[in-house]
Design brief:
- Strands 1-2-3-6-5-4 form a six-stranded antiparallel beta barrel.
- With 107 residues, it is of the alpha+beta class.
- It has a single domain, classed as Thrombin, subunit H (Beta Barrel).
- Helices cover 20% and strands 51% of the residues.
Length: 107
């Protein structure tokens, strides 16, 4: 396969919620990168679907973004981030930075 990821993934294991129109379902966010996410959910999706994702973060904060489904192998799916606010982009960057810091500090 010739597919190469542009950004490395960070395992997060966070609870989230997917929404497509009026349908909504819980999900588990398995990992994230600057450009996408890998999820596990019972929501029926197909390649090309556009979804809203909300992720619960520490201290009662959350992160919301819009995704396009790229890969489906139920119950897991991969999606690219197609829309995210500057504030949520900053929160995502902090998640990724914190992971890098913790990996180096364990060293």
């Amino acid at each position: 396969m010739g597919f190469k990821r542009k950004h490395s993934r960070v395992d997060v294991g966070r609870v989230g919620r997917l929404q497509r129109g009026s349908l909504s379902a819980p999900c588990k966010v398995l990992d994230v990168s600057e450009s996408g996410v890998r999820l596990e959910s019972r929501l029926f999706v197909k390649r090309g679907d556009v979804l809203q994702l909300g992720i619960e973060l520490e201290r009662g904060r959350s992160l919301t973004c819009e995704l396009e489904v790229i890969h489906v192998r139920a119950p897991k799916l991969g999606a690219k981030i197609i829309s995210i606010s500057p504030e949520d982009r900053e929160r995502l960057t902090h998640i990724l930075d914190d992971h890098v810091q913790s990996r180096f500090s364990r060293g």
